Amino acid sequence: MIKLTLNVLLVLLVGLNNLCYAVEAGNAMPSCKVTSLDKSINKDIQKYKGKVVYVDFWASWCGPCAHSFPFLNELHQKLRDKGLQIIAINMDENTDDAMGFLEKTPANFEVVSDSTAQCAKDFDVKAMPSSFLVDRQGIVHKVHFGFRQEDTQELFQLVEKLLAQK
What we know:
Layout: H1 2-21, E1 33-36, E2 42-44, E3 52-58, H2 63-79, E4 84-90, H3 95-104, E5 110-113, H4 118-123, E6 130-134, E7 140-145, H5 152-164
Parallel strand pairs: 3-4, 4-5
Antiparallel strand pairs: 1-2, 1-5, 3-6, 6-7
C-alpha cells in the first residue's frame, strides 16, 4: 500500500512539474540560447524583445513544417518592416538534415539551431511545428501546435494586431 501511494505521489509530482513549466498564452517568453546553423553565432532570443516575435520550432522530418515555411516566408515578406521577427528554431540532431530541408524548402527568415534541445524544453514543445507568437513586451499571445492552412488567416490577423500595438 505504501509503495502504491508513493508511486501515485511521484506521478502527480511529475505531472505538476510539467504543468509549471509549460509556456501558455499570458506567460513571458522564456530566455533561451540558440546557435546559427553554421555554429558561428550564439544568441539569446530575448534580444528580440521590443519586436513582435514568431518563434517556430521545426525539424527536417516534419511534413507539416515543410507546408508552414511558405506561409512564414509570406508573413516575413509582408510584415518584417512593421516590426515582425520570425525565428525558426531547428530541432534536428544533425545540421546536415536541416540544411537539406532548407535546400528544398527555402526560408527567407532567420533559422537557428537548438542542438541541446534546452529551448524546446523551456517552451515545452509538444509537437512539430510548435509556434509561439510573442508581443513587443515579451508576452506570449498564441501557442499553436502543428500547421493547417485554414489557420493562417487567424495567425496573420493576430500578428497584425500585435504589430499595431506600440
